[in-house]
Amino acid sequence: MLKTPPLATPKPRLQFLRGTTINSVTNHHTRRKIIRCQHSNTITNRKPRILCLHGFRTSGQIFKTQMNKWPQSVLNNLDLFFPDAPFDSNGKSGVEGVFDPPYYEWFQFHKDYKRYENFDECVEYIEECMIQHAPIDGLLGFSQGAILSAALAGLQAKGMALTRVPKIGFLMIISGAKLINEALAEKAYSPPIQCPSLHFLGWLV
Protein backbone atom coordinates (compact mmCIF):
# COMPACT_ATOMS: atom_id res chain seq x y z
CA MET A 1 0.00 0.00 0.00
CA LEU A 2 1.40 3.37 -1.01
CA LYS A 3 1.65 6.08 1.60
CA THR A 4 -0.44 9.16 0.87
CA PRO A 5 1.74 12.26 0.50
CA PRO A 6 0.50 15.28 2.45
CA LEU A 7 -1.07 18.19 0.58
CA ALA A 8 1.43 20.99 0.08
CA THR A 9 -0.22 24.11 1.49
CA PRO A 10 1.23 27.34 2.92
CA LYS A 11 0.22 28.05 6.55
CA PRO A 12 -3.16 26.31 6.41
CA ARG A 13 -6.07 28.01 8.09
CA LEU A 14 -8.01 24.79 8.28
CA GLN A 15 -8.45 22.41 11.17
CA PHE A 16 -8.32 18.79 9.99
CA LEU A 17 -10.71 16.26 11.43
CA ARG A 18 -9.34 13.05 12.82
CA GLY A 19 -9.57 10.29 10.24
CA THR A 20 -7.81 7.63 8.27
CA THR A 21 -6.40 8.04 4.78
CA ILE A 22 -7.72 5.25 2.55
CA ASN A 23 -6.20 3.95 -0.67
CA SER A 24 -8.32 2.44 -3.41
CA VAL A 25 -7.46 1.24 -6.90
CA THR A 26 -9.25 2.46 -10.02
CA ASN A 27 -8.18 1.16 -13.45
CA HIS A 28 -4.86 -0.02 -12.01
CA HIS A 29 -4.03 3.45 -10.66
CA THR A 30 -3.97 4.37 -6.99
CA ARG A 31 -6.47 7.06 -6.09
CA ARG A 32 -5.83 8.83 -2.81
CA LYS A 33 -8.77 9.95 -0.67
CA ILE A 34 -8.80 13.36 0.96
CA ILE A 35 -9.19 13.70 4.72
CA ARG A 36 -12.25 15.81 5.46
CA CYS A 37 -11.72 19.11 7.25
CA GLN A 38 -13.69 21.96 8.68
CA HIS A 39 -13.11 25.70 8.96
CA SER A 40 -11.52 26.72 12.24
CA ASN A 41 -12.65 30.35 11.86
CA THR A 42 -14.26 32.81 9.46
CA ILE A 43 -11.89 34.95 7.41
CA THR A 44 -12.93 38.33 6.08
CA ASN A 45 -10.99 40.86 3.99
CA ARG A 46 -8.79 37.99 2.89
CA LYS A 47 -6.45 37.40 -0.01
CA PRO A 48 -7.83 35.63 -3.10
CA ARG A 49 -7.76 31.87 -2.42
CA ILE A 50 -6.56 29.92 -5.44
CA LEU A 51 -6.37 26.18 -6.03
CA CYS A 52 -3.23 25.45 -8.07
CA LEU A 53 -3.31 22.39 -10.35
CA HIS A 54 0.15 21.16 -11.31
CA GLY A 55 1.35 19.74 -14.61
CA PHE A 56 1.31 16.16 -15.87
CA ARG A 57 3.44 13.77 -13.82
CA THR A 58 4.74 16.41 -11.44
CA SER A 59 3.37 17.34 -7.98
CA GLY A 60 1.94 20.11 -5.87
CA GLN A 61 5.34 20.70 -4.28
CA ILE A 62 7.02 20.95 -7.69
CA PHE A 63 4.43 23.46 -8.88
CA LYS A 64 4.91 25.47 -5.70
CA THR A 65 8.66 25.56 -6.39
CA GLN A 66 8.06 26.65 -9.98
CA MET A 67 5.72 29.40 -8.83
CA ASN A 68 8.42 30.83 -6.58
CA LYS A 69 9.82 32.44 -9.73
CA TRP A 70 6.88 34.85 -9.67
CA PRO A 71 7.59 38.21 -7.97
CA GLN A 72 7.24 37.92 -4.23
CA SER A 73 5.13 41.08 -4.28
CA VAL A 74 2.54 39.12 -6.29
CA LEU A 75 2.75 35.90 -4.27
CA ASN A 76 2.36 37.79 -0.99
CA ASN A 77 -1.09 38.90 -2.10
CA LEU A 78 -2.39 35.45 -3.03
CA ASP A 79 -3.47 32.51 -0.87
CA LEU A 80 -2.27 29.52 -2.90
CA PHE A 81 -2.99 25.82 -2.30
CA PHE A 82 -1.06 23.11 -4.11
CA PRO A 83 -2.70 19.66 -3.91
CA ASP A 84 -1.17 16.59 -5.52
CA ALA A 85 -3.16 14.99 -8.33
CA PRO A 86 -5.16 11.90 -7.32
CA PHE A 87 -3.23 9.30 -9.34
CA ASP A 88 0.36 8.15 -9.09
CA SER A 89 2.45 8.64 -12.22
CA ASN A 90 1.94 5.77 -14.63
CA GLY A 91 5.12 6.39 -16.60
CA LYS A 92 8.25 8.49 -16.91
CA SER A 93 7.99 12.11 -15.82
CA GLY A 94 9.24 14.92 -18.03
CA VAL A 95 10.80 16.61 -15.00
CA GLU A 96 12.76 13.55 -13.88
CA GLY A 97 16.32 14.64 -13.13
CA VAL A 98 15.18 18.23 -12.53
CA PHE A 99 12.73 17.69 -9.67
CA ASP A 100 12.65 14.77 -7.27
CA PRO A 101 9.70 12.33 -7.13
CA PRO A 102 6.99 11.48 -6.23
CA TYR A 103 5.09 12.41 -9.39
CA TYR A 104 1.33 12.43 -10.00
CA GLU A 105 -1.15 12.79 -12.85
CA TRP A 106 -4.71 14.14 -12.89
CA PHE A 107 -6.07 11.65 -15.41
CA GLN A 108 -4.75 9.35 -18.13
CA PHE A 109 -5.13 9.58 -21.90
CA HIS A 110 -4.47 7.39 -24.94
CA LYS A 111 -1.90 8.19 -27.63
CA ASP A 112 -4.47 9.99 -29.76
CA TYR A 113 -5.30 12.30 -26.80
CA LYS A 114 -8.98 11.74 -27.52
CA ARG A 115 -9.74 9.02 -24.99
CA TYR A 116 -9.38 9.58 -21.26
CA GLU A 117 -9.36 7.39 -18.18
CA ASN A 118 -10.41 8.50 -14.69
CA PHE A 119 -11.51 11.96 -15.84
CA ASP A 120 -14.71 11.90 -13.79
CA GLU A 121 -12.82 10.66 -10.72
CA CYS A 122 -10.34 13.50 -11.19
CA VAL A 123 -13.13 16.10 -11.30
CA GLU A 124 -14.65 14.68 -8.11
CA TYR A 125 -11.25 14.83 -6.42
CA ILE A 126 -10.77 18.49 -7.38
CA GLU A 127 -14.22 19.30 -6.00
CA GLU A 128 -13.19 17.69 -2.70
CA CYS A 129 -10.04 19.83 -2.72
CA MET A 130 -12.15 22.95 -3.24
CA ILE A 131 -14.40 21.96 -0.35
CA GLN A 132 -11.40 21.24 1.84
CA HIS A 133 -9.82 24.64 1.21
CA ALA A 134 -13.08 26.58 0.88
CA PRO A 135 -13.80 29.17 -0.16
CA ILE A 136 -11.80 28.86 -3.37
CA ASP A 137 -12.08 31.96 -5.56
CA GLY A 138 -10.26 30.80 -8.68
CA LEU A 139 -8.09 28.17 -10.32
CA LEU A 140 -4.47 28.40 -11.46
CA GLY A 141 -3.34 25.57 -13.73
CA PHE A 142 -0.18 24.57 -15.54
CA SER A 143 -0.07 22.12 -18.48
CA GLN A 144 -2.49 19.28 -17.66
CA GLY A 145 -3.69 21.33 -14.71
CA ALA A 146 -4.38 24.24 -17.08
CA ILE A 147 -6.40 22.01 -19.41
CA LEU A 148 -8.48 20.94 -16.43
CA SER A 149 -8.94 24.46 -15.09
CA ALA A 150 -10.38 25.80 -18.33
CA ALA A 151 -12.62 22.78 -18.83
CA LEU A 152 -13.95 22.86 -15.28
CA ALA A 153 -15.20 26.43 -15.59
CA GLY A 154 -17.31 25.50 -18.60
CA LEU A 155 -18.54 22.23 -17.13
CA GLN A 156 -19.50 23.96 -13.90
CA ALA A 157 -21.42 26.66 -15.78
CA LYS A 158 -23.55 23.92 -17.34
CA GLY A 159 -24.13 22.23 -13.99
CA MET A 160 -22.10 19.19 -15.04
CA ALA A 161 -19.25 19.50 -12.52
CA LEU A 162 -18.32 21.19 -9.23
CA THR A 163 -21.97 21.44 -8.20
CA ARG A 164 -21.18 21.52 -4.46
CA VAL A 165 -18.92 24.59 -4.55
CA PRO A 166 -19.41 28.24 -5.56
CA LYS A 167 -18.85 29.29 -9.16
CA ILE A 168 -15.22 29.65 -10.24
CA GLY A 169 -14.51 33.38 -10.14
CA PHE A 170 -11.48 33.50 -12.42
CA LEU A 171 -8.84 31.38 -14.15
CA MET A 172 -5.08 31.67 -14.60
CA ILE A 173 -3.88 29.38 -17.38
CA ILE A 174 -0.19 28.60 -17.94
CA SER A 175 0.73 26.59 -21.07
CA GLY A 176 -2.84 25.42 -21.47
CA ALA A 177 -4.73 23.63 -24.24
CA LYS A 178 -8.22 22.40 -25.03
CA LEU A 179 -9.57 18.93 -24.48
CA ILE A 180 -9.54 17.04 -27.79
CA ASN A 181 -12.30 14.57 -26.96
CA GLU A 182 -15.15 16.01 -29.03
CA ALA A 183 -18.01 15.09 -26.72
CA LEU A 184 -16.26 16.47 -23.63
CA ALA A 185 -15.01 19.57 -25.46
CA GLU A 186 -18.55 20.38 -26.61
CA LYS A 187 -19.71 20.27 -23.00
CA ALA A 188 -16.76 22.28 -21.66
CA TYR A 189 -16.40 25.05 -24.24
CA SER A 190 -19.89 25.70 -25.60
CA PRO A 191 -20.92 28.38 -24.85
CA PRO A 192 -17.63 30.26 -24.26
CA ILE A 193 -16.35 30.47 -20.69
CA GLN A 194 -17.75 33.56 -18.97
CA CYS A 195 -15.41 34.09 -16.01
CA PRO A 196 -12.31 36.32 -16.37
CA SER A 197 -9.14 34.48 -17.40
CA LEU A 198 -5.44 35.29 -17.64
CA HIS A 199 -3.36 33.23 -20.10
CA PHE A 200 0.40 32.65 -20.10
CA LEU A 201 1.92 31.23 -23.30
CA GLY A 202 5.16 29.28 -22.83
CA TRP A 203 6.66 26.98 -20.22
CA LEU A 204 7.09 27.26 -16.46
CA VAL A 205 10.47 25.73 -15.49
Integer-rounded radius of gyration = 16 Å
Q: Give the neighbour order of strands across the main sheet.
A: 6-5-11-12-13
Measured by DSSP, the beta-strand proportion falls in 15-25%
Q: End-to-end span in angstroms?
A: 32 Å
Number of strands: 13
Described by the principal axes of the CA atoms, the overall outline is globular
Question: Can I get a quick summary?
Answer:
By secondary structure, the chain is an alpha/beta fold. The chain has five helices and 13 strands. 23% of the residues lie in helices and 21% in strands.
What does this molecule look like?
There is one protein chain. It is globular, with a radius of gyration of 16 Å. With 205 residues, the chain is α/β, with parallel strands linked by helices. The longest helix is centred in the middle third of the chain and has 14 residues, at 119-132. 23% of the residues lie in helices and 21% in strands.
